[in-house]
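Hey, I'm writing a tutorial for new members on how sequence and structure tokens pair up, and I'd like a real worked example in the thread rather than a made-up one. If someone can provide the structure for the chain below, I'll link this post from the tutorial.
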Amino acid sequence: MPLWHWRKKEWDSVSTIFATELLLERLHAENIEEAIRLAEEIFPHDISHLESPGIEYRASLNPELYSSELATLGLDFQQHWVLQTGERAVALTGLQHKIGDLPHIVWLGWFCVAASERRRKLGSRLLRWTTEVARALGYREMRLWTTTLAEESQAQVLYERFGFRIFCEEVEFDGTRRLYRTCSL
């Protein structure tokens, strides 16, 4: 079943894995700016690229307006969620399907936890929740990309613990390595 047909009720019950002061919501018009703020704080190197949280988040809410950007990005589906405390975004996750990928493959999109919220197992719980959503939607493989930047080192440990293995590497213009990971669901 495509994610956009997935009823809110079906993911509300899973979101109880988070503390009561935290709310997991789909990305929407009222929380998009806070989501972009957090994503740009965590991923400052991606702000000016086409593959940026601002463009991808806005495109997910209004695909018709951003159809050329989505085509350039190679995305034919995306859905994002924001974990919030009050009005403040503390973590983000998403699912994306790329044009040309086999139907059973989904990509983890803009997954991050605010620095102030790390070491509370939010990342582990959110990644587990996201993989469960992907599995429930019929995806059998999840992929992601990350880099060897020092600020992403904690994420590397988390991805390894969840079974994400490196299947490809690219060297960026600044010498940083981009790591592509995959995991069976």
